[in-house]
UniProtKB/TrEMBL annotation:
Ranges of compositional bias, category Polar residues: 361-382
Organism: Arthrobacter flavus
Domain DUS-like FMN-binding: 31-331
Requisite cofactors: FMN
Protein name per UniProt: tRNA-dihydrouridine synthase
């Protein structure tokens, strides 16, 4: 499965461990929270390849406070997860504070991240997600409350955000400073605005700018890291203290092995043949059965990973279609057996962008949202609805 690449020696990188409060993350790499992806099954697959911090899927603070069973599943961790990392989404300081208190008092997390990056219209339309940092009073209230509650258990709290709403309404500079002054352990920046969704290119210059503006806390860079070489480029170009990996590891949990190697100055890279990919898919499906405790749900979930796993590999169209509709573990086993296990790693075709892209679109916002950096009464009333039925960022 592994090969030694012929990279020039200067693509090697040595970065110190990432320090988040009392937590030392030896390899400064973070699995980005991804709703519907970064459950216990996927986190296990990823961390088996390398070091790093592996964040759960996002949970809304209200659902957690209401002890919704799905939210309790989302924040659960395997016994051998050394750092139990949970991402919270919330729009109101009181509820976010209560959710952090639950995590701290019930010893359910070792690290908490707050999500301020969701670009989805149904969220931003109510002033939530990436629209929220525009309102400085609300953003400050949420972060300060969360840090205060987390500090009672010595739990490091971080935030993850986008550049802003659009290029004319950037928020990352003030939000980064407010977060730093509130005592967060680190700030992660996805170098896109909400209106970009996942399209175009992440702006690594904004990440470099934030790194420079906040010399006293770790700044993590996020966006468009598809390979260990991309991570090296980002660190070199921006000076970040660590990298956050989202779509690049979809269908490629071994990317965390490559990243660990890169950060340890080892040029070995994983280049699995089709047989090894098939084995990983099957193991992923089995782990999902454990996660959901239900084969039907697990198999429904694995379907969305198929195109990512087999990107660039020699797999016929008909077989791809069957894999994308696989109903049971038994059928999955049969379908995977039809693949040519000897088929080699296809090279560049298996690399590069994958997953969500979308196209740029004007961000939906509450009325008069942009006219002031403070909340008015109508917006205050509206925003409490922003937390209902949210998933993803
Ligand atoms: C399917 C999917 C789900 C996501 N869910 C979340 C989430 O729950 N919380 C969050 O902060 N970001 C979420 N994101 C955004 C990612 O964490 C990350 O910021 C983004 O994908 C950019 O990084 P990348 O270019 O490495 O993919 C999600 C992204 C995708 C593709």
């Amino acid at each position: 499965m592994t090969v030694v690449s012929t990279l020039p020696a200067d693509t090697r990188l040595d970065l110190p461990p990432l320090q988040l409060g009392d937590i030392t993350v030896k390899t400064p790499v973070v699995l980005a929270p991804m709703a519907g992806i970064t459950n216990t099954a996927f986190r296990r697959l990823c961390r088996e390849y390398g070091g790093g911090l592996y964040v759960s899927e996002m949970v809304t603070s209200r659902a957690l406070v209401e002890r919704n069973p799905e939210s309790l599943r989302i924040i659960s961790h395997d016994d051998d997860e050394a750092v139990r990392s949970v991402q919270l989404y919330g729009v109101d300081p009181v509820t976010v504070g209560a959710a952090v208190r639950i995590l701290v008092e019930e010893d359910r997390a070792d690290h908490i991240d707050l999500n301020f990056g969701c670009p989805v219209p149904k969220v931003t339309r109510k002033g939530g997600g990436a629209a929220l940092p525009w309102k400085l009073d609300l953003f400050t209230g949420i972060v300060q409350t969360a840090v205060r509650e987390a500090s009672k258990g010595d739990i490091p709290l971080t935030i993850k955000m986008r550049k802003g709403i659009d290029e004319d309404h950037l928020t990352f500079r003030e939000a980064g400073k407010i977060a730093r002054d509130s005592g967060v352990a680190a700030v992660a920046l996805h170098g896109r605005t909400a209106s970009q969704f996942y399209s175009g290119k992440a702006d690594w210059n904004a990440i470099a700018e934030l790194r420079e503006a906040l010399p006293d806390i770790p700044v993590l860079g996020n966006g468009d890291i598809w390979s260990a070489e991309d991570a090296i480029r980002m660190v070199r170009q921006t000076g970040v203290d660590g990298v956050v990996i989202g779509r690049g590891c979809q269908g490629r949990p071994w990317l965390f092995g490559d990243l660990m190697n890169a950060f340890e100055g080892d040029s070995t890279r994983h280049q699995p043949g089709l047989g090894q990919v098939a084995d990983t898919v099957y193991r992923h499906a089995e782990l999902l059965v454990d996660t959901f405790g239900n084969e039907m749900m697990a198999l429904r979930d694995i379907r969305k990973h198929m195109a990512w796993y087999f990107k660039g590999y020699v797999v016929g169209g008909e077989l791809r279609a069957k894999l994308a509709a696989v109903p049971t573990l038994e059928v999955l086993r049969e379908l995977l057996a039809e693949l040519d296990a000897e088929s080699p790693y296809p090279g560049a075709d298996a690399e590069g962008p994958r997953g969500r892209a979308g196209s740029p679109k004007k961000t939906s916002l509450p009325q008069d949202w942009l006219s002031s950096r403070a909340l008015n009464d109508a917006q205050q009333a509206d925003i409490s609805a922003a937390e209902v039925d949210v998933s993803g960022g």
